[in-house]
Amino acid sequence: MEFDTLCLHANGDKRNGYGAIATPIYQSATFVHESVEEVSEYSYSRLSNPTRARLEKTVASLENGTAAFAFSSGMAAISAVMKLFSASDHIIASDDLYGGSLRLFRNVNMAEGMTFDFVNTADIKAVESLIGEHTKAIYAETPSNPLMHVSDIAALAELAHRYGLLLIVDNTFLTPYYQNPLDLGADIVIHSGTKYLGGHNDTLAGFAVVKSSELAERIAYVYKTIGAALSPFDCFLIERGIKTLPLRMDKISTNARTVARWLRCRKEVKKIYYIGFEDHKGYSISQKQSRGFGGMISFEVESRELAENILANVKIIQYAESLGGVDSLITYPMRQTHADVPEKERLERGINDRFLRLSIGIENEKDLIEDLRQAFEQ
Ligand SMILES: Cc1ncc(COP(=O)(O)O)c(C=O)c1O
Fold first, then answer.
1. Separation of CA 228 from chain center
2. What are 112-145's pLDDT values in tens digits?
């Protein structure tokens, strides 16, 4: 089956007895065993649930994985994956990451004894130079949030495997519609399902997807033990969202290209970070490893005053945290997604008081541009 068909039919079997087209929401904590000898397929919803199983089958198929695990948020998925490691293990991570992932690594995992080095994972030599005796994994977000660094997944996978490390890739920004890290050699793919997979800014969710059955077993053990499973109703919403993933991504990407080009022509815009521009540093890698550029654009305007004016005056585009939904959102990373990154580091990376991040939605592109124009000119 092709990708768009898989979004609807990957989970072929209808375990509902009535042939319902929509996945029934099995809102049950526990399941009856037929007899003392027979253990039913489902026993307790922290371990597995029929609604969740269908969603996990779909996500595993879209990422060409053997197993997917649906968590209550993207952060729950990343936290669970970090439980595969022990105190004193060392991980090399992208230096540009969603602020919550940085907070987890620095304030939780490091407090438990793990060590991390942060580096631009687009620079393979720099990554290699950090590999040491205790290194166990490379963790990359590509494209990264919010600076849009593009890392070469196949090259990172080759490096990781040469040294016996795992490669973990957060594929939230491009989704499996545009990029399949497992096919490029990654061992674990992470998604904040809250974003494009759900697609409607109405549900939190997260996924870890793997190819190897050995990793699947290890994650399944953590999964049932820590208990951060996605609820049946939320599974229903995410599965429903996935049905339109290709349609949404096509429209979002077209809109984003138009908005990025418009922003680039504004004299008030001093820097623009959009992976679809041919002069983006990672353009040739994107061409090689992905099938589209997605809907994320970051940009820096000439003054703090203008940045605040834009946030205060957009009308169709909403000033709100998060990304990947049908509604366009604008974020102030300094105050929101990256507020916990130490100021010095944040400023060195360019996440300053003039830096904004746009998540383009499915509105008409003319309305998005007109909305930005009037907000720029207030
Ligand atoms: C790239 C990326 N990964 C992970 C997360 C965490 O996901 P969640 O908010 O669903 O916990 C986010 C959240 O913004 C993100 O942008």
1. 17
2. 999 999 999 999 999 999 999 999 999 999 999 9
What is the atom index within ligand 1 of the atom nearest the CA of 205? Answer: 10
Least Cα distance to 206 among 339, 68, 92 occurs for: 68
Q: Are 246 and 8 in contact (CB under 8 A)?
A: no
290-346: per-residue pLDDT in tens? 999 999 999 999 999 999 999 999 999 999 999 999 999 999 999 988 888 889 989
pTM, two decimals, is 0.97
In terms of Cα–Cα distance, which of 259, 250, 203, 285 is closest to 372? 259
Instruction: Judge whether 367 counts as a catalytic residue.
Output: no
Which amino acid is present at 58? T
Which atom of ligand 1 lies nearest, measured to the CA of 206?
10
Q: For residues 104 and 75, is the Cβ–Cβ distance under 8 A?
A: yes
**Domains of the chain with CATH codes:** 3-242 (3.40.640.10), 245-376 (3.90.1150.10)
Q: Rounded to an integer, what distance in angstroms lies between the CA atom of residue 182 and that of residue 244?
A: 22
Active-site residue, 46 included: yes
